[in-house]
Amino acid sequence: MADETGTDSPEQGALAAYRASLLTEKDVYLFNEGNHYRLYEHLGAHAMTLGESRGTYFAVWAPNAERVQVIGDFNRWGENPHDLYPHGVSGIWEGFIPGIGNGDLYKYRIDSRDSDYRVDKADPFAFQQEKPPRTGSVVWDLWYEWGDREWLNRRRATNPLKDPLSVYEVHLGSWRRVPEEGHRRLTYREMAEQLPAYVQEMGFTHVEFLPIMEHPFYGSWGYQCTGYFAASSRYGSPQDLMFLIDRLHQHGIGVILDWVPSHFPTDEHGLAYFDGTHLFEHADRRQGHHPDWDSFIFNYGRHEVRSFLMSSAMFWLDVFHADGLRVDAVASMLYLDYSRSEGQWVPNRFGGRENLEAIAFLRQFNEFVHREFPGILSVAEESTDWPMVSRPTYVGGLGFGLKWDMGWMHDTLQYMSRDPYFRKYHHNQLTFRLLYAFNENFMLPLSHDEVVHGKGSLLGKMPGDEWRKFANLRLLLGYQYTQPGKKLLFMGAEFGPWREWNHDESLDWDLLQYPLPAGLQQWVKALNRLYREEAALHVQDFSFKGFEWIDCNDSDNSALTFLRQDDEERAPVLVAANFTPVPRQHYRIGVPRGGYWRELLNSDAREYGGSGLGNLGGVEAVADPFHGRPCSLDLTLPPLAIVILKPA
User: Fold this and answer.
1) 314 and 41 in contact (C-beta within 8 Å)?
2) For the segment 523-547, what is each residue's pLDDT rounded down to a tens digit?
3) Does 207 fall in a domain?
């Protein structure tokens, strides 16, 4: 890289000087070791000034390449390509190209060393990609002036596991659309004008976005990701997404992002077969191909792949101020035989089915993000009985803060879909989870996965006529909010759409003109308010000290009664649920203290669409022992309803 006199040109001399700060030998060492967590500051495309030249520095990892070139509009997509050069033996190719800046399109043209394979690849570290179906990368600067300092300072000082945590799960492309403009999707900035105020009014503490990382196929909802450092350009620029997150923080709402380190799509422009070798994925299809999704599985044993994924996690928490990451499909990472028949998987070095490299990666991920970002959440979607998913790594756990309770979700929805007449024969589907409820830090999800692919909406799962369907759904949500564990509700369920979710259409917001959907929405708002106000409903979510059955065996009446309490041993909260349409008059239950028990919420109240049956504001406890307790209440349990009381 010398000029005709045999000396370095001023331009290349400036590059060498800049390289000393942009990509040092320490960076290369940490990258190759699997311990570099901020690769986005060093690899990819970075607009800069070298000497008197304004241009862009490019760096890409392609160790099996014979040649790497940058192509784009600036060289007519390869008519006169710009070469990159090896950075020692690191496998990284780099170079500075004058005249290229913010907004310019590019790709890497890679010639493989061992074959005639030539391919044009998007930049794995690009901060922006072209709007799909186009696949080019975009040189982009990420500067943004944030206004959420107060939020971040408060987050660092909190323990989210002790706080109320009710999550509103959102798919950006279908929450709302613009019917006047062909039902187009909202942009990030349009969402910022509507979503924060709505979520704040409803009382949710957090929003969780289905993956917003760039993905070529919209119908994958983001779970087939190609841009691990690029926010989807379908909705605007990276700064537009930052603006949305900033506005949510300013409204007191946390932001959790779905993140998919479990697999990636086979699209030619993406990570697959990147430099003519299986660079990011295993070469053996028994390890590297996911049969369920026809996608590739990351090679977690490769140090550079771990650095890539760790840097992606860091990127969204650091650059985009996310308050947590929900890790998708953790079970598929943990088991080598996941969705595979005999002979279609490769055992680990001890002959077992556990993916030891993936386990090590998940522990590394959780240790780092919780150390670097106190107060953030890491959430595992893990559908098996793998032990200690949400326990610290120093005791042998995976280190997640929370784990989705998939068992609760499936059992409860199956129970609620039954005709109430037969529910008494399946009472254990409600009570079984309390045998394991404190083995993990559980989140109770009613997620997007349960309202697609012919499963119907939550309302559609409920039995009976329209009134009973809405009563059942209010009961289900009341039961969710009073059980131990944090809460997650997919968008729309708060007002009860009849149709299952369709990612190509808006939610049916026009339903709110009718009394029952409007009443359900008010019920969810009331649940969120009570959940925040009553410490007994959230402080001891992960301890048996926070929950006590009063009667879990009344299957004949399909009724449940239990207490929730906080760690200060203040007055408990009493929950009584009737899962039949038959009102239970003079339903007697034992309570730990006398005096007046005020009815805090009743899902059968008329304002929520109910029949108006209840306890007239409260009940006086009498000194008549029952259920092994010194006092008892004579309650009315409304039909298909839940009532929540507390000593005055």
Assistant:
1) no
2) 999 999 999 999 999 999 999 999 9
3) no
Q: Strands 324-327 and 377-380, how do they pair?
A: parallel
Strand duo 137-138 + 128-129: pairing = antiparallel
Tokens for 299, please give them: 């090679």
In which region does residue 556 sit, left (phi positive, over 0), alpha (psi from -120 to 50) or beta (all else)?
alpha
- Pairing type for strands 92-98 and 641-647 reads unpaired
Task: Report, in this order, helix, strand and coil percent for the chain, each rounded to 5.
Answer: 30, 25, 45
Cα angle for residues 238, 90, 282 (degrees, 5° grid): 75
Residue 121's Cβ-side half-sphere holds a number of Cα atoms within 13 Å equal to 29
Catalytically active residues are 328, 381
Strand partners, 110: 68, 119
Q: Is the dihedral of CA 511, 515, 516, 521 positive or negative?
A: positive
Q: Judge if the upstream peptide bond of residue 133 is cis by omega within 30 degrees of 0.
A: yes
pTM, entire model: 0.95
Evaluated on CA atoms 461, 465, 466, 467, the torsion sign reads negative
Query: Which domain range does residue 70 map to?
Result: 10-121
What secondary structure does DSSP assign to 57-112, as a single string? EEEEE-TTEEEEEEEEGGGTTTTSPEEPEE-TTSSEEEEEEET--TT-EEEEEEEE
Quick one: pLDDT band at residue 470, thresholds 50, 70, 90?
very high
Pairing assessment for the beta strands 377-380 and 402-404 based on DSSP bridges: parallel
Contact 39, 307 (CB under 8 A): yes
Residue 367 falls within a domain, yes or no?
Answer: no
CATH number of the domain within which 602 lies: 2.60.40.1180
Task: Render the burial of 91-124: b for 16+ CB within 10 Å, e for the rest.
Answer: bbbbbbbbebbeebbbbbbbbbeeeebebbbbbb
